Amino acid sequence: MTTSRRDTLSRRLGLSLRLTHGRSGASGRLLAPAVWTVVVVAMLAALLTPRDTDPGLSQLSLTVSDFAALDRGGPIETAMASLGLVSLLLLAVARRRLPAVRGLPSVLLAVWGAGLVLAAVVPTDPLTTQLTGSAYVHRYASVAAFAALPAACLVLAGRLGSAAGRTVRWLRVLSLLAVAGAGVMAYSAGPGGRELIGLVERVMLGCEVIMLGVLGRYVQRMASAGRRRDHGGDTLPL
Q1: Which of left, alpha, beta for 6 (phi over 0: left; psi -120 to 50: alpha)?
Q2: How does residue 80 score in pLDDT terms, banded at 50, 70 and 90?
Q3: Sign of the torsion formed by the C-alpha atoms of 182, 173, 49 and 74
Q4: What is the pLDDT of residues 123-152, one digit of tens each?
Q5: d(Cα 73, Cα 93) in Å, to the nearest integer?
Q6: How far does Cα 85 stand from its chain's mean position?
Q7: Which residues lie closer than 8 Å to 133 by C-beta, 6 or more apart?
Q8: DSSP annotation string for 161-201
Q9: Helix segments in 54-103, DSSP class H
Q10: Which of 27, 150, 169, 222 is deepest in the core (most CB within 10 A)?
Q11: Contact between residue 54 and residue 69 where contact means Cβ atoms under 8 Å apart
Q12: What angle in degrees, to the nearest 10, is found between the helix axes of 197-231 and 3-53?
């Protein structure tokens, strides 16, 4: 191969790599803002939508699913489905750029994302009615999802270690709060007579969606660091 042909091939290869990294870079830069936008929308839907559904219903004693059953296809279910889909997108990016996510955390994050989508698509039943098959699917999909995310983040925090700094501390604190909230919620749903179950659930949900935003920000940072390393070897000698 002559020198001129080698130079031409090197330039073409370098241009192709830069274009590929540019496209992945654009999507990577949008990852964390997209996750946080959906997080905010989901929290607003859980907190504000019940006022529009029926101002007389209490957010302290009724769960998000209770309100979703009264407003099928409304903002709550839309926000849940969007949160699940964004979570699966985040997982796809994280698996490429963050080896610690692979394995058990990846499976648990997939359960979280798919469980949210399934719970949003499969309806539950209105208050006080006999539960149907679809309502049980909705219930167990929700339980699996909200158990899987803190478990995934606790495993991931152990794998990342001190190198991840504040991200690990946030993941651990939020995960433990979510687990504690799930325990209180389980008690309220049984012996507690649903006392303040809506409040406890919303605190737990808040911890979990913020946890997802923290994870999204960390994955974006790792993806940006990986792109900078990749750019150092765009044009390799042939």
Answers
A1: alpha
A2: confident
A3: negative
A4: 777 765 677 888 889 889 999 999 999 999
A5: 29
A6: 8
A7: none
A8: GGGGTHHHHHHHHHHHHHHHHHHHHHHHHTTTTTTTHHHHH
A9: 64-70, 75-97
A10: 150
A11: no
A12: 170
Question: d(Cα 38, Cα 44) in Å, to the nearest integer?
Answer: 10
The sign of the CA dihedral 23, 24, 25, 30 is: positive
DSSP state of 237: -
Residue with tokens 């949008």: 30
Measured CA to CA, the distance from residue 207 to residue 226 in angstroms comes to 29
pLDDT tens string 103-130: 999 999 999 999 999 998 887 777 656 7
Assessment of whether the complete model's pTM goes beyond 0.70: yes
